[in-house]
Amino acid sequence: MAIRLSGMTSGLDTDSIVKAMVSSYTTRKEKYQKAQTKLEWTQDAWKSLNTKVYSLYSNISNLRFSTAYNLKKTSVSDTTKATVKAGSGAPSGTQSLKIKQMAKAGYMTGAEIKADSEKTTLAQLGYTGGDAKLEVKMGDETKSITLSASSTMNDVVKELRNAGLDANYDSSYKRFYISSKKTGVANDFTITGSNIDGASALYSLGIAYGGEKTTTGTYSSNPYDEYAALHGVSDDETRAKIEAAVTNYNNLTTDAAKMNAQSKNLMNAVNYGYSYATLQGIYEKLDANNAGDSDKLKLLEKLGSSRDGALISKNGDSYDTYTKTTLTDTKGNTLYKYIDSDNNSHYIAAVADTDKGTTSYYDVTESTRTAYTDADGKELEAVPTGDGDTTLKVGDKTYKKDEADGKYYLQKEDGTADKTDFITVSQKTEYTIEAGAVNKTGIESASAAYDTIIKSMDEKTKSSYDEVLASVQAFENSKDEVLGSDDKYSVASLTKAIQNAYAGNGKEAVEQLLAGNGNETDGFVNKANALEEAAEANTKKAADSNIVKELASKQKDSAEYTQALNDLLDRVNTAYTLQNKALFNSQVKKVAGQDSEIELNGVKYTGDSNSYSINGLTIEALAETGDSAISITTSTDTQGVYDKVKDFLTEYNNIINEMTKLYNADSAGSYEPLTDDEKDQMSDKEIEKWETKIKDSLLRRDSTLGSVMTAMQTAMMSSVEIGGKKYSLSSFGISTLGFLNAAENEQNAYHIDGDEDDANTSGKTDKLMAAINDDPDTVMQFMQQLSTNLYSAIGDKMKSTDLSSAFTIYNDKQMKTEYTNYTKTIKEWEKKISDREDYYYNKFTQMESAMTKLNSTQSSISSYFS
């Protein structure tokens, strides 16, 4: 940069003069800055609009399926006994409900003791033992507690709570109150002493429960019986009884797990069988219209969510699948990969013809070359020299190989290596379009091919197809974690059985297989129920020896197993001793945990809570009904369906109104973004008003916006054929107000006749609600297809292109490139301005220096005449 002297000798305003002289350059720079600012505002406007369009697109995705409209409402004849909510899968009609038994939590009321406050210690209650070991058992879980003579009532409460119980000590009534946190038999609890001191401490605390005392003075249910039952006449005999219990436990639980897995598979196979038969029927119907479509569709189904990045190509009677990769050929074209039956990879390059807007595909050759890369990752042209390529030459620099890490380091004049300047050698794979390659024809987008086939289906088939395909894929993709593939009830075996049945005699054979070929006990459902009952019986038997569960989980002959066996042996011996001592408080009262039991339509259900979810109904039991039944009535929620349609139209209207306003905006005329100098001359309010004028007009008459609007409007105006009759939104009293009646920029919005919230149409007859009440299926089918049409229309506009990203309705890639180019251009003009200013300042500096010298000479001459 030149030294800038501002008229020190000449007195000229050099800065202003230079600024004026480079003003033409500055104007050019500001032109690009304004254009970039305008582009940035346009990007922001599109981003905001795109977010709303994508939200609509996501929300209407579910509206394409019948489940979105299967809304139900329900009523109960006695709301003091139960509350019921109906899901979309709940059947319409009236059902009978009996609540036979409510679930209860285990609850213990302790005996009265002499503890005057929560700070009273065990010692003050007369306890004289050492460490008191207790066990709190809830279901399958056991936790240990240790108390001492100095433990207070507060300490006891704290330990019980830490063990997972609700516990309190009431000093007024001098009793402990203890309960399970959850209801049900499985969540009930017992508190026992695991040593003599533990049993003695429980007795002192008034919570040593041994069941109800009988007339003979014994206790009906001794909590130590379960352990004591394993006691033998010697430790060796006790060990043998314990290990026999472990073997029995393992056999029971293994068999139960197997039977449960078989039962689950059989139940799932019922739905799979019917779905599979229906899907095959759809394939046959497709082939009847266009031979080979079924094979093509099966391939596309396997691709699933990866269809968007895949291509398919006809290869004889089958298809090859090319998956999009992150690789490119040497010219930057995207590569697609195909793996043949021998597991060899093949690639094709996607070459875009931007002039014609098409893409051609060519086979590529894979080759490998040696690449030399510097420390910054930049590839270099290097020449290997020396014996065994021990050195590299890059220009006049020499790099020597370091055998330790394989890198080549720059050799300095003193012969040492410069560790900051090195070259890495690697093998680089490159892909090049084969010489003489011709465009591969017949290649198509997998997602487009899928859409084409789906669109060829009639509405009824399409609706059925989505549901049965999901069911079929869910079962076939499920994995057996317990059963082997050779088990007759494994997923693989059941899948094969159903497919073989269909291959033999179609849908009828599948139905016979599922129903049991005329023998009720042989049907899949009956088999599943029988296996489930057997598994439940095994599980109950295993629970009888549940105390060996922890031991059964250890690897036999391991140190952990030996330790656990010895620990259990000690507990068994202790329990046997405690059983005989009978240290129980006769005043303790215990309410056992209880499962709930209901009957729905005569079928019994049990659970550890009072809540049930059965066939779409969520039932909350509140009180027992005995043998009397209450009724549950379920029907279509017509208001819910109406609100679903209304919410959809509201969201659509909000977006289409905004689009219309943006498209019809007033022109900003000659308004351009302000420079900093221009802003300095205006107030903040004036600046905001100026910029708003521009921002509001950015998408005025925008062709991309117009295209999206047209696509959405066309989809909404489309007619749908149902049962041979065509329907449109107007068939259900839904229409626009028209240009003459609608508010400004709201002529494309839809209004529902009779909508009480809409002042424009509230006085008209409500045809939509009438249609939902009279023929809800037709309304639902229409809305499904209308949603599908709009979803597809928006989806087509959101597809990825060379100019735009996926799920984007505008050319975001193109705008990003333009923004980057503006940044580069502005920097170039800033450089030009700086260079020009330096040039002029240099000239003025020279002038100032010359004038200074002249003045100095004149002064010197004048001094001779003074």
Walk me through the structure.
The chain has 866 residues and is of the alpha+beta class. Helix content is 44%, strand content 21%. It has 21 helices and 31 strands. Strands 10, 11, 12, 13, 14, 15, 16, 17, 18, 19, 20 and 21 form a 12-stranded antiparallel sheet that branches. Helix 2 packs antiparallel against helix 14. The longest helix has 55 residues. The protein is extended. The two termini are 43 Å apart.
List descriptors.
866 residues, alpha+beta, twelve-stranded antiparallel β-sheet, five-stranded antiparallel β-sheet, 44% helix, extended
Write the layout of secondary structure elements.
Blueprint: H1 14-21, H2 23-59, E1 72-76, E2 82-86, E3 93-101, E4 107-109, E5 132-138, E6 141-147, H3 153-162, E7 166-170, E8 175-179, E9 189-193, H4 196-205, H5 225-228, H6 235-289, H7 293-303, E10 310-315, E11 318-328, E12 334-339, E13 345-353, E14 358-374, E15 379-380, E16 383-385, E17 391-394, E18 397-401, E19 408-411, E20 417-433, E21 443-445, H8 446-455, H9 459-477, H10 491-515, H11 524-543, H12 549-552, H13 559-581, E22 589-591, E23 596-600, E24 603-607, E25 611-614, E26 617-621, E27 630-636, H14 638-663, H15 676-680, H16 684-696, H17 703-717, E28 720-722, E29 725-727, E30 734-736, H18 738-741, E31 750-752, H19 767-774, H20 776-797, H21 812-865
Antiparallel strand pairs: 1-27, 2-26, 3-23, 3-27, 4-8, 4-22, 5-6, 5-9, 7-8, 10-11, 10-21, 11-12, 12-13, 13-14, 14-15, 14-20, 16-17, 17-18, 18-19, 19-20, 23-24, 25-26, 28-29, 30-31
Helix pairs in contact: 1-21, 2-14, 2-20, 2-21, 6-7, 6-9, 6-10, 6-11, 6-13, 7-8, 14-17, 14-19, 17-20, 19-20
